[in-house]
Amino acid sequence: MSIRVRIAALFVSLFCLFTPVKFFAQESAAATEAASDDTWYYGAVIKSVSFKGLKSVSSKELDGVVSSYYGKKFSDELFGDMMDRIYAMDLFEDINPQALPGDVKRSTVSIIFSVKEKPSVAKIRILGNKQIRTTEIKEALSSKEKDIYVPSKISVDERAIRDHYLEKGFTNATVRSSVKETDKGVEITYTINEGRSTVIAHINFSGNKVISSKTLKKKLKLKEVGILNKGAFQESMLEADKQAILSYYANEGYIDVSIVDVPLSTEFNEKKNRDELTITFVITEGSQYTYEGISFVGNHIFDDEELQSKIKLRKGSIFNQTKFSEGCMAVADLYYENGYTANHFQQMPQKDPEKKTIFFQFIITENVRSHVENVIIKGNTKTKDHVIRREIPIESGDIFSKAKVTSGLRNLYNLQYFSAVVPDVVPGSEENLVDLIVSVEEQSTTSIEFGVTFSGVSDPDSLPFALFVKWQDSNVRGTGRSLSANSTISTSNQTLGLSYGSNWFNDLPISTSISTEISHASLASLRNKVDRNGLIDDDSYYMNYEQWKWSSGFSLGRRWTPDFAIISWSGGINGSLKNNVYDEDIWTPVDSAVSDYANTWGWQNSVWTAVSIDDRDINYDPSKGWFASQRFTWYGLTPLETEFFLRTDTKLEKYFTLLKLPITETWDFKLIFMAYSGLSLQFPKPGSGIGDSSRLYIDGMFNARGWTSIYNKVRGKAMWSNILELRMPLIPGILAVDFFGDAAVITKEPDQLQDISLSDFYCSTGPGLRFTIPQFPLRLLFANTFRFDEDKNLEWDKNWKFVLSFNITNK
């Protein structure tokens, strides 16, 4: 901080101390009356801090500075510290504070700063650059046009430009800057002398006998110039490569390895007008050591056996530095997860040069558990603080728990309100107190969707698509409530629906939802036809009818969030009025669910309950974890209805990350394996039946994908559906490539499942694209269907089928 700023801050603090009434200007009559007590705001809790007069400075940038003072009592020392931090940002020429009562009793205070910003950056010029584009250089700068001019950023940006040239191999580049003040603001000019480029021509090794030069080269980030590599040289990468070599040797047991020297030699290539560099790593390998074990000293909270279980490196094996360090981190993490954040750990190696063994003494200094002093939320402009805080199962005064913090992050991601959630733990005001800071980056929760959707298939040859429009806000006014309206229009189906829901009720994780929908559909159903021989054919002829339906539903649920999973219970009731319109004098439908509502309005109601356990890291796009749920639904609640039966749905999911390879700094190549199994059963009330349209079926869209032609032909009271998927995220959070395999079976009665064989399954496989954007949950699949005959011979369909499906998150 400059002397001028320190003097100004000291002056403000002294002025505040001796003349508080004059220092705080009041804006309203009520505030003036409150100010009659010269010291009313001393000891008052700081409710909010806001800024007036901002033009170029972002309020988010200031929130990160002042939000840590929320909830603390006002004092001269605290206010002086706040002013020091604001002045240290070097953004304002003038700052005038005001204090207003935060409530009628004046127990809280709201502080308002009226500020005058410093001049802004009117223009940034880049001169002298020929090899690198101007826009690319400007992206590397911390100062942007229209930002507040901060002189200290000039030297930072000069270094950023030089670093950018170094990354491109221009080791001789120089940068100088000039600043000019105008009426419109400050103009900054960076003049660059690019110099000659430098490329790495050769990388050599000396002294390596155990490990080949070819193997060591693969461990380096620096690469020799070639067709696929630019061969750019960076001093920082050279240091990283030295550590990579040492780490590789240490993981092979050579703990005494050292890099004695790294001489660099340069030759000028006149033909290519560049400097060509030769790098030589001079290595002393030393001897290979065996791991002899570890002992723990000072541990009272956890016994030796529990700590030893965290060390995966086994006694007698070749010493591996990475595995050993991971074990030590796991020991420290065990304490950390249980709230012991102030412990100290020290590794004391004991080498035996003659036996070539190494033993460790792990000294632990245990301290009392840390407590959370404050939970601070940053970055949210729409979502209310309490909507975020209630998802984090830790609050001020609690013992710190890493597991609870992790659980809170999972809850916040599952809301789908945020594109990023970053936690940070910083020391509190006293020893063994910590502040938990949760920074979020909000994403849009309001969407208007247009397109096509699956409309149901009553005729196997009809196109199963319909135009739809849907408006949805899953975070209405930042309160965590959801509201949506949708409409579907096609030649055979029209709907209009509304729904409203909330995940919390009176600060309890109790979810409620209510929905209603009106629909009209042109459908087809099998009909009875009397043949000339007097027999009834109920499997060849269809009749058309129109169905009008009004339905509504209400649900209630409760969530529990222990460390290991999310446990949910929910229940609800659904009711509908429907009317099937057709000429009864001409048509006799086979399905009783059609004839029972012929040309008259009738009720169709159900009540349901469900329980689930969710261990997935992110429920809408998991990479690990499992999910299990059980749902019971009873259809038929009044004597006016015609169908009375129980339906059970059991679902199991499991996810594994099979492979994770870092490719770039921001992208990993991942392979995720998913397995799903679902069992649905129907049990009619004795003396009652289940209409054909109410029975279970394979839709070819969500189960046995590709089997769309059996929608009306294969129905029953039991269905077992299985899915295997190999998922490869291309753009995390946006797009993934999947390879799937489905197998589903339908039986007429539940007890027939015990007699099924391989030939009863409807199978399919193929690739697909899956959009993982919550607002665009679309799947584009290519499916090839197949079955097994009685002799277990595979019978493939010759044609691949395009399937449009959606991502349905099981909850």
Structure description:
The chain has 811 residues and is α+β, with helices and mostly antiparallel strands. The chain folds into 7 domains: 3-117, Ubiquitin-like (UB roll); 121-193, Roll (Ubiquitin-like (UB roll)); 197-284, membrane protein fhac (Ubiquitin-like (UB roll)); 290-365, Roll (Ubiquitin-like (UB roll)), CATH 3.10.20.310; 371-442, Ubiquitin-like (UB roll); 463-610; 615-811, membrane protein fhac: a member of the omp85/tpsb transporter family (Porin). Helices cover 17% and strands 43% of the residues. It has a 17-stranded antiparallel β-sheet that branches. Helix 1 packs antiparallel against helix 5 (76-88).
Characteristic key phrases:
811 residues; alpha+beta; Ubiquitin-like (UB roll); 17-stranded antiparallel beta sheet; four-stranded mixed beta sheet; 14 helices; 37 strands; 17% helix; globular; disordered N terminus; Outer membrane protein assembly factor BamA; transmembrane; signal
What's the short story on this structure?
This protein has 811 residues and is α+β, with helices and mostly antiparallel strands.
CATH architectural designation of the largest domain:
Beta Barrel
**Continuous helix count:** 14
The oligomerization state is single chain
**Count of distinct structural domains:** 7
CATH class of the largest domain: Mainly Beta
The CATH topology of the largest domain corresponds to Porin
